Amino acid sequence: MNTVSDLSDVDGSSVVVIGGGFGGLSTACYLSDAGADVTVLEKNEQLGGRASRLEVDGFKFDMGPSWYLMPDVFERFFNYFDREPSEYYELTRLDPHYRIFFKDGDRVEMVPDREQNREVFESYEPGAGDRFDEYLAKSKKNYEVGMEHFVYEDRAELSDYADWDVMKNARGLSLIGSMQDHVEQYFDHPKLQQIMQYTLVFLGGAPTNTPALYNLMSHVDFNMGVYYPENGVGGVVDGIVELADELGVTFHTNAPVSEIRGREGAFVTRTETDAEFYSESVVSNADYRHTEMELLPPEKRQYDPDYWDSRTYAPSAFLLYLGVEGDVGDLAHHSLVLPTDWDDHFEQIFDDPAWPADPAYYLCVPSQTDDDVAPDGHSNLFALVPIAAGLDDSEEHRQRYRNLILDDIAEHTGVDLRDRIVVERSFCVDDFADRYNSTAGTALGLAHTLEQTALLRPGHHSSAVDGLYFTGSFTTPGIGVPMCLISGQLTAEKMADRAT
Fold this sequence. Notes:
FAD/NAD(P)-binding domain, EC 1.3.99.37, oxidoreductase, FAD/NAD-bd_sf, oxidoreductase activity
């Protein structure tokens, strides 16, 4: 796999990074290691961006990302700095990886044993076991080629694809069509199609609008495994912050940025407390639209409001963080509750925005693996329902939906939480917008639709302001913790390339 480009040209430069999410932390580490003087300004009281943590009465919740996938990306990141992830946190492979409760009363679980998973597929549809093997072989090839040639390399221009090496490796990849079209070539049973497509939630898309290339996520799921990092995803944040400290990065929390002024080599980044930070370059890991429309004057913006209004945003989410007396029965560390037909839910996210009437949702119960996230005799869990970005988020809507979800959990998993809740918090559209300056309250950023993948996403370097850069989920390679780590590398490489 390709190595990181030479970053030595940033040696001695000064950089302000706005936002301490995974993209900002990654960029800061690469630049500081190369000799830059890096300062990170974080709006909130803790680092990690959407990977914030909530601690209430002995319960410790990961507020955002909770799946540890693509361990090779984390290993590659730490290896670049001559470290190992295990120096900062330990991993536990989950068994089962996850359990699915279908709303017709059926349930299934995916486990580390691939042969058992194959037998599950065969039990639903004769011949599906063989097609499971074929699908994963295709997924594995797409992952290996896609990561090397299209993820770890930032191909920002159409001309970047016009070379023999790229065209040779692209042959046979699923570059055209949707995930729905691709999966239907292998499996007829709707439940098997759902199992192969549930990871689209992590990409902020739907089966009909996400490129078929993302079948590579099944290789991640079935071949690479699902893990739990020590102290949750917040423990991964702690590890990367510790690494950044070792590399010399300076952090300021509770420092929301109100303005970016200046030009290449002479930027002033001002916070809401009127503190000013001077630097030669600025990297924004904040919401891309917020950065352009709120932090820059009109003449220094790349995109106008019509551009941002025309984008497809990944879903927001309705989240319930629950501390519960007793255990939670058959709920696994990761559980999915799915209607047998989830088309209506996706339509109510992307086509006709509304609070889903029959939602598909995710339940995370880290206390099934980690005794430290809940007091003795209690369970820690959160429920996450993907909903359309920009929905009306009133207290009345939240209360109604809270009751709907708790009733639905009881009916379809057999676990009644309603009379055992001792801690409860909710988080929804308005909270994403307020805490993270998130456009329309999206939980993730720009969706990975057919029109918003690869070079069709906003760039790492501003075309309007030399010296202003972007990282994180709006840029390439896209949404998700591993992708944001890689975006930090791509941003640092872009900065070094333009400094030559």
